[in-house]
Structure formats: C-alpha cells, structure tokens
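Supplementary Methods, section 5.1.

A reviewer requested that the exact input to the structure prediction be made available. We therefore reproduce it here, unchanged from the version used in the analyses.
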Amino acid sequence: GIRRHGARVIVEGEDFDAAKCAARIWARSQSLAFIEDGAEVDISEGAGTVAHELLSEGTAFDAILVPLGNGALLAGMARYVKSVSPGTEMIGVCSAGAPVMHDCWKRGVADDEAAAAHAMSIADGIAVRVPVAAAVLDLQGIVDDVVLVEDAELLAAMRSIRAHAGILVEPSGAAGLAAIAADPSRFAGRQVATVLTGANLTRDQVRRWLA
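The structure derived from this sequence is encoded token-by-token as follows.
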C-alpha cells in the first residue's frame, strides 16, 4: 500500500522486534530520527482520540479492553479514559505466547532481563519480545489489569467477529474480544468495549484461519 505513495520499503528481520532493531540501526546510519511506538508521547496522545470518540457517544463503560503491544494505544486510551471516567476499568491484552509486556507491567519495570528470545504467537501485532521501558512506566497507575489470551482464543474471536459483524480482523485485533470470551463471569452484566485494531492478513492466513 505505502509503495503506491512513493515510499521505499525495506523488509528486514524475522519478527517485529528484529525489524524494529534493523530500522533503528538504519536510521542511525542515515542520521535520521527513529520513531518508536510506545516511546513517543505524540503517538500515545493520538491514540487517545480513539477513547475520546468511544466515550463521546455517552455510554458509561465499566471496562475497556485494548490489545497491548508496544503500549502506545493502551497508554493513550487509558490516560484519556481515566481523566473523564476514572471508574472505568482499563485492561490490556497480551498474547500468552508473548507475555513480555504483561510480565513487565506486573513487575512495574522493564529491564534488559525482561527481553525474550522468541515470541510464540500468531498475533504478530502484539508479539513483543523486547519491552519498551518508557511504555511500561507510562502504563503504571492508568491501567488496572493486563491479561493473557491463547492463540486458540484469538482464532475463535476472529471467527466470531467475522460471523457476527462481518469484519475481518487479524489476531491481535481480536485480542480484546478473546479476553472477554475467555472470562465471561468477569464481564457478565457489565458495559464493556474493545477496539478491533487491524486487518493485516494474507490470503493464506484467511484460508487457514477463517475458512
């Protein structure tokens, strides 16, 4: 898509964090700025507009679940929600196969020992191996909980969204619904929202996961 607008695309690295590392090195070699999701305040503030739009309809939500990758979306949404509706529970959702951000949030710190060698998840959008320390700190005090979901739960949520809403989403985009479905007693009878965050699927993935 972005190639059509004249962008040069360099494909590097075996996963999300490897690609990010390569991009950081390339940017440094070219004396360019490296923009990192989760570490840039402006990105987080922009993500907060999603929460503004969600709450502008007037619904009083008891809980809002947000996929948690590098943290910008959750941080931005949580900061806005807590400023206008402090009683709303803000919950991040990570993949059980890539629990680095979950574990760091629980401990309240991200250090060199927190990085994982591998992320074993189909949800590449939230398959974080190397936590963004600034994001982990940013989430403290504005996020009430971070939960984990299995790949099978993500697939079930993707299929449910397609069947009932006619929307095609990638695994990470279905993380919020997967968490709700995995713990029905926690959310029963409550006003709950989640964000469907992406639809980056190949034709082969659609055939394998949604056929």
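The longest helix spans residues 41-55. These observations are discussed further in the main text.
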